[in-house]
């Protein structure tokens, strides 16, 4: 196995469709350490799918670079599993034929047992044609293909969208087990934050074609504080006392001030503070496109990860 | 072997839930010294949570001296917390007390409230609860925890005063 501690990195990455088209993504810079489970979150049209397709090598950047497993996307392709949002499969093939195709296309890497297990957990008839399957069943087949390839990096575009709650839990469990056992890096997008909150340890928040937040979820949450205070300022002066801190969002209702800030020093004594939830954090940034982004290009020490053989044995 | 149940809406950090449930299993003697904890892979496959969360919980248990990781073998219980195992005299006294409370006409919530009040009188509440420390000025755990929490009343850990944030 190649030793790279960075699974995915972008620098000045941008993509626009057509020479005069609008930028779907621009000025993207981040680094995702290997072994992380990363949520790519953002509203519809934010550039999530574009980012994943760039990483998968299906789109070429208009500017900047994207590095995948220490090399360019095309060279990394054999080690990357990608499931596009529309789960493209051959509709005329049966489930069994689709898996056989996966085996033929991935010589030396194919794990037939994993593919069979994922498909049979959904009680899919191997003889059923792809075109007769529901959206959720197709997702299952697409994930079976991607996982059986035993990739070092999995890129999943809205993988959970079509799945019922039971299948969602089961397949998310399968993905997490893969990450725990093999240290597989997983990048998955969703516009539903809550769906990913417990499964991911890293976040890329994409909005308006830019990366707004990037980093370990714990670090991002620690960097922010939700504050509320009573009667912060004489009416009309507008002096809320927030000035020294980076304000993501603030609101004054009557005598009540509430805000989400990145504190740059101690906060006044009388203020009540609380740690935001991931969803609060993401929504605050999405509601406030002007808020300063937080995307440390070189995140702190990539803390050692599941190779923790003792806990996995 | 324990099985962890993650409640996403409890307001308690996921790794803390694993720590608490492990300690609970140790107290009740469900887990005993020498027992093996489930592997991170087994836990995440069943719960769909992030593997690091499990490792973080196990590290905390290890720091407390309750478990030890043996390279290549797994994580094992070092010592129990079973001062009052399932068959101890303390437990049977409590059982007898519950019977008397029932005969005296107390219902489940009355008993839980009474138990919590006595618990608060004799034990500090701040001890093993790192995750909830951020919410300031939380009133002392109400004796009549009005939360309709199914099946927590028999939990000697007491109904957790889940911080609900500020009513702002």
UniProtKB/TrEMBL annotation, chain A:
Pfam families, alphabetized: ABC_tran
Record CDD domains: ABC_DR_subfamily_A
Keyword tags: ATP-binding, Nucleotide-binding, Transport
Disordered as annotated region, ranges: 292-313
Keyword Transferase: no
PANTHER family found in the cross-reference section: ABC TRANSPORTER ATP-BINDING PROTEIN ALBC-RELATED
Listed name of the protein: ABC transporter ATP-binding protein
Automatic annotation (TrEMBL), chain B:
Keyword terms of this UniProt record: DNA-binding, Transcription, Transcription regulation
Positions of the HTH gntR-type domain: 12-80
Superkingdom, taxonomy of origin: Bacteria
Region (Disordered): 126-168
Entries under InterPro entries matching the protein: Tscrpt_reg_HTH_GntR, WH-like_DNA-bd_sf, WH_DNA-bd_sf
Segments of skewed composition (Low complexity): 126-157
Matching Pfam families: GntR (PF00392)
Molecular functions (GO terms): DNA binding; DNA-binding transcription factor activity
CDD domains, per database record: WHTH_GntR (cd07377)
SMART domains in the cross-refs: HTH_GNTR
Pro residues bias locations: 158-168
Descriptive protein name: HTH gntR-type domain-containing protein
